Amino acid sequence: xxxxxxxxxxxxxxxxxxxxxxxxxxxxxxxxxxxxxxxxxxxxxxxxxxxxxxxxxxxxxxxxxxxxxxxxxxxxxxxxxxxxxxxxxxxxxxxxxxxxxxxxxxxxxxxxxxxxxxxxxxxxxxxxxxxxxxxxxxxxxxxxxxxxxxxx
Length: 152
Description:
This protein is an alpha/beta fold. The chain has a single domain, classed as Dihydrofolate Reductase, subunit A (3-Layer(aba) Sandwich), CATH 3.40.430.10. Helix content is 18%, strand content 33%. It is built from four helices and nine strands, in the order E-E-H-E-H-E-H-E-H-E-E-E-E. The strands form two sheets. Strands 4-3-5-1-6-9-8 form a seven-stranded mixed beta sheet. The chain has a two-stranded antiparallel ribbon with strand order 2-7. It starts with a strand and ends with a strand.
């Protein structure tokens, strides 16, 4: 199992990750940073998100997660130290108990409606902000990096 299991997402200021299930995420401005961070790591992507992407992302071990899969068993098969959960909403929610870190790039736009980061009433656990890094080439756009608080 990886030492770090990182939820990574581009999010609107009103908490959405997509306009709808067919959104190709052309509105996101952090794709270069995403590529830099995830290349050489394992990524877990939900089957709906994978179908929108259309192909495996090069330079990474791609794992397509289906609703019938057991997240703990999937994580046990991973030998890399870092694993990124890259979406979508149902996949983020399913892996929430295993998340050790969250990398969120809040984009200064609002959809008003769409697909939230997490499904149902799920909420991110308490987070400790580690740092905020500027998205290269994007003035005023930052990725906030958090560690998940473990409650005993």
